[in-house]
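In keeping with the milestone schedule agreed at the kick-off meeting, the structural modelling team has produced records for the first pair of proteins. Each record is given below as a sequence line and a C-alpha cell line. The laboratory manager (R.T.) confirmed that both were archived under the project's standard naming scheme.
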Amino acid sequence: MMNEVKKIVIIGPESTGKSTLCKQLAEHYNTLWCPEFAREYLLKHGTNYSFEDLAIIAKGQLQLENNYELRIMSDEYKNLHSKFNIKNLKLFLDTDMLVMKVWCEYVFGKCHNFINEEITKRKYDLYLLCNIDLTWVKDELREYPEEKPRQELFKIYKNILSNQPTPWKLISGIGEERLQNAISAVDTI
C-alpha cells in the first residue's frame, strides 16, 4: 500500500543551489520537484516588487505546491513508483512559507498574517538548509551579492529551523558532495 507523500523543503539564502538541488534530488528519487513561483512572477512583473506583491507570490506558491502534490498523487506517479517498488512518494519543494516570512520581514519589516497561518497549518517531513558555502552567482533576480546579508539571512533561517518541530539538516559541500549530503539527509526519513 502507498504511504503519503513525504515533503522535503529546500531553503536558504539566494544563490545557495536550492533549485539545482531540488532538480537533482527529484531525478535521484524518480519524482517531482515544485519550483519557486517567485522566479516566474518576478521575471514577468519585474524586480521592483511591493509588500502586496509578496502576498501574490505567497498565494501563487501555495497553489503551485498544492498542484504538485495532486500531481504526484495521480495514478501516473503511483504506477511509476509501484513499478520501482518505491513505498514513499517524495516531493521536493524549492521554497515554502518560511521563506516568504523571512523575505517579507527582511525587506519590509512585517509579514502577511495568512503566511504565518499557513506556516502553522502545513506539515513537512524534512527541511534542508543550504549553507552559504557556494559562491554567489549573479542573475537577473538576485538582490544580495554582499556577504553580510547572506550571513544574516542564513542565521535567520537557521534560527527559525532550530525553533520549529520539523527535522532539518544543514547541507554543505560543492557539486556532487552537496548532492550526496542531501541524499543522506533525505534517506533518514
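The second protein of the pair:
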Amino acid sequence: MTAASSVVVVAGGGRVRDEIRDEGAGALVIAADGGADEALRVGLHVDILVGDLDSVTPEGLRAVEEAGAAVHRHPVDKDRTDLELALAEAVEAGAPRILVAGGDRGRFDFVLGNALVLADPGLADVEVDAWFGEATVHVVRSERRIPGRQGDLLSLVAVGGPARGVRTEGLRWALDGQDLPAGVGLGISNEFLGDTALVELREGVLLAIRPGRDLPEA
C-alpha cells in the first residue's frame, strides 16, 4: 500500500467541526464506527470504516459501503476502543501526520480515553493532533511549535508519567526546564503572547491543549 500523505480519523462523541472537510480533502479518511456518520455529514469520503459497528447508523454503514469504503468489522468483545483500532489503521497507512476529529459530548470516560490514547507509544513516529469539540490537542514528544493567537489559552498536561525538562517560549508564564508530573496544575491555563509558542521537553509526552477561544478559565 502506498503511504498516505496524511490521515484524518473521524471519531464519535458528538458533532465534529465542519472545517474537517478541508483537512480531509486529499487525505486518507478513516472512520471509527459512528464517526462514519459525522464524516458523511460534513461531506467527507470515507476510505476505511473500522470498529465493532455498534454505533454507526444502518444508513451510514450502507452509504460508506456503497461508496467503496473498506469495512473492517471487529468483535464487540474487543480489547481496544474503536479509536485505537482506527489509529492502528492510520499508522499502517504510513502517513507522517494524523488528525483526529471527534466530539466532546457523551460519556466522559470515552472523551478522556480518546484524548489519552493520542500519547500511545505506537504513535511516537507520527505527528498527532486532534480536534475534540472546540478544543485542539497537540501531542508533544520532544519539540513542537504550536499556533495560536495572542491571549489564547494553552494547557500542558503530562501523560503516562512526568514530562521532564519542559521549556517554553511565547507563553505568558515561561517554563525553563521544569518537570511536570502527571496530574498537576502547573501547566494549566497558560497564555499565548503572540501567534505561536514553542514547547520542548527532554523526556516524556505532553498534551498541549488549546481549549477554545472565549471559554471560561478554571
